[in-house]
Amino acid sequence: MTNNDIQQLIDKYLNGETSPAEEQQLALELSQYQEIPEEWHAVRLMLGELAIGEAEYDAIIKQRSRKPSALLIALRVILSTAAIYLVGLFFWLQTEPTAKIETAYNNKVEQTQPTPQPSYCTEGTPREILMCYMERRKAQPHIYQQLKQKLYENQ
Question: How many other C-beta atoms are found inside a 10 Å radius of the C-beta of residue 27?
Answer without folding.
Answer: 25
